[in-house]
Design a protein that fits this description.
By secondary structure, the chain is mainly beta. It contains no helices and 9 strands. The strands form 2 sheets. The chain has a 5-stranded antiparallel sheet, with no helix packed on it. Strands 1-6-7-8 form a 4-stranded antiparallel sheet, with no helix packed on it. The radius of gyration is 13 Å and the shape is globular. The two termini are 27 Å apart.
């Protein structure tokens, strides 16, 4: 996904999932951050500085084995990456996808 933001920007870009697992992508304190909850008790945080970026991107790939790899970019330049993030469960009954806000779940 590629998202254009006003600089300086701050806040949630996208949030997907619920207390059973999910992820959120947000900008805060000059950094692009992805937080991932695998729904099995593990949470990972991936973050990198974006400076005065006009576009940010989170590129998810599924290499197999029930995992994701993710690369965070600012203006096309990689700022952070991670491998081995557990794919989400097939459904998130309490919350779907929020764009521009994170309403949270019960």
């Amino acid at each position: 996904m590629t998202v254009k933001i006003a600089v300086p920007g701050t806040g949630t870009l996208v949030a997907h999932g619920d207390q059973g697992g999910g992820y959120a992508l947000f900008v805060d304190s000059g950094a692009l951050t992805l937080v991932h909850n695998d729904g099995r008790g593990r949470t990972r945080l991936i973050s990198g500085p974006i400076g005065v970026a006009s576009a940010v991107e989170a590129d998810f790939t599924a290499p197999g084995g029930g995992t994701w790899s993710v690369v965070l970019r600012a203006d096309g330049e990689e700022v952070a990456s991670a491998e081995g993030l557990t794919l989400l469960f097939p459904m998130a009954p309490f919350q779907g996808i929020d764009v521009g806000v994170d309403r949270g779940s019960p």
